[in-house]
Amino acid sequence: MLRRVNFYSICIAFGLSVLLILAGSRYTDNTNYRPASESRRNIKNFLKIEDVDENLLQPIPTNPYDGSPDIEKILDKTRLKIKHELWAYNFSISGVQRLEDLVIESGGRPLISLIISTWRSGTTFLGEVLNAVPGNFYHYEPFLNYGIIQIRGTPESDKALKTIKKMFQCNYDDMEDYFDYGKNHWHQFSHNTRLWDHCKYKKELCIDADFTSRVCRLFPFQSMKVVRVRLRLIKQLLQDKELNLKVILLIRDPRGVMQSRQHRNFCQPAPDCWKPELLCADMISDYVAAGRLLQQYPDKFMALRYEELALNPSSTSYDLLKFLRLGVTQSVDEFLHSHTNIEVAGVSSTFRVSRDVPFRWRNVLDFNFVDEIQETCKEAMSLWGYRMAHNATHMTSKDFNPLDQYSLTQ
Ligand SMILES: *[C@@H]1O[C@H](CO)[C@@H](O)[C@H](O)[C@H]1NC(C)=O
Ligand SMILES: *[C@@H]1O[C@H](CO)[C@@H](O)[C@H](O)[C@H]1NC(C)=O
Asked: Which InterPro entries has this protein been placed in (predicted)?
């Protein structure tokens, strides 16, 4: 009897250890941050990049695909890369004499650009234009973890404005919510290409506040897009003398916004997203705020309609960069060349823009739906210079130009 019990306990113990070993190996698999197929892809990308570099005759001394785990080494390489990419940059355009004047680590103050907008209004494209400037650290959208909601006032705005300011100062302390969300949504970091270059190999680094701060403090230009905070609240940041901030409000025709949001499954349960009356009330509030900011901070605030950017991507981007005191570099021209005048393929994943993208709603939407939006959005559309379509034929006719003039200083 005793021997039998012993036999069974040995069997159970053996079974348990096998289970533990299996579970252990699975755990390691899950936390392995670089699956074989991805590393193969990276090698391919790397080769492609090498081909391009040969043509440019400008060897880049650092290797963005280097998965070095040594943080000091990563920081050294990043410093070198920024210096190298900006060696021919004319810093007087940015209002300073040298790179160090814009680098927090060296006691300087970076140039900061904040894009304020709402979902599906062209921020992906505009954000990428700014990120094409070498030496730019793209904070992306800091409030993904808030869900599909708009922040229109206190108390939510207190925390949100504090977060924006802290991020622009490269201070990521007490931002557990932000990093926790990122752990399951890596796209929160991947748009920040110059951070992602390193942390994609060692994802712990992406959620490491200290590492993020130290990398951030090396970059002379900082940009961020925010689609969840209304413009009226941003005044507080423009008043802040500690920040070297410029703000761009990006507005889009509500008919185009609603058409684009129809493709997205994130919208439907969230009234802030699918109700045109909320979108257009925000557009009116943004219009009033824009007029005031333009008066008070003419050199720090600018409003832009997405349709104008899409119709004239190069000249509008040049004007915008000039306003932001950013130089037009070869990389910006290359980006504009490769991402414009080509048919758009999908939704958010591609950010190609052509002349007809902003007006696609005219051929896709049912006139009854358009008419509903127009009725709800009459005032917002008239303030921002969007013309009404009178009927279905008119809506699709070549003679109908939805864009009218508008003025913020009435
Ligand atoms: C740099 O830009 C300034 C204008 O911001 C211009 O006057 C100057 O000539 C430029 N320098 C060079 C070397 O291009
Ligand atoms: C549609 O609107 C246009 C422009 O206002 C007008 O000329 C035309 O007669 C309208 N067509 C119909 C069928 O109502």
From this structure: Gal/GlcNAc/GalNAc_ST (IPR051135), P-loop_NTPase (IPR027417), Sulfotransferase_dom (IPR000863)
Model pTM above 0.70? yes
* Protein residues with CB under 6 Å of any ligand 1 atom: 90, 92-93
Name 104's Cβ contacts closer than 8 Å, sequence gap at least 6. 110, 169, 170, 216, 217, 218
Any domain includes 197 = no
Q: Is 80 part of a structural domain of the chain?
A: no
SS3 252: coil
- Let me know the angle formed at the C-alpha of 395 by 391 and 401, rounded to the nearest 5 degrees: 125
133-152: b (≥16 Cβ within 10 Å) or e? bbbbbbbbbbbbbbebebbb
Q: Which residue has the tokens 């919208």?
A: 267
Q: Indicate the helix (H) or strand (E) that contains 243.
A: none
Query: For the chain, first and last CA: distance in Å?
Result: 98
| Domain assignment present for 233 | yes
For the chain, the domain total comes to 1
Mutation probe of ligand 2 site: the residue of 374, 393, 396 with most atoms within 8 A of C-beta: 393
Enter the DSSP assignment of 357: G
Q: How confident is the model at residue 343 (pLDDT cuts 50, 70, 90)?
A: very low
| Burial class, 19, CB count within 10 angstroms (exposed 0-12 / middle 13-18 / buried 19+) | exposed
Residue 340, beta-bridge partner list: 353
Residue minimizing CA distance to atom 12 of ligand 1: 90
- Average pLDDT (372-387) is 98
Q: Which ligand is nearest to the CA of 97?
A: 1
Domain of 223 in residue numbering reads as 105-170+217-396
pLDDT over threshold 80, residue 349: no
Beta carbons within 10 angstroms of residue 244's beta carbon: 19
78 is a domain residue = no
Burial of 212-243, coded b for 16+ CB within 10 Å and e otherwise, reads bbbbbbbbbbbbbbbbbbbbbbbbebbeeeeb
Residue with CA nearest ligand 1 atom 10? 90
- CATH (domain of 334): 3.40.50.300
Residue-wise pLDDT for 51-62, tens only, equals 222 223 333 334
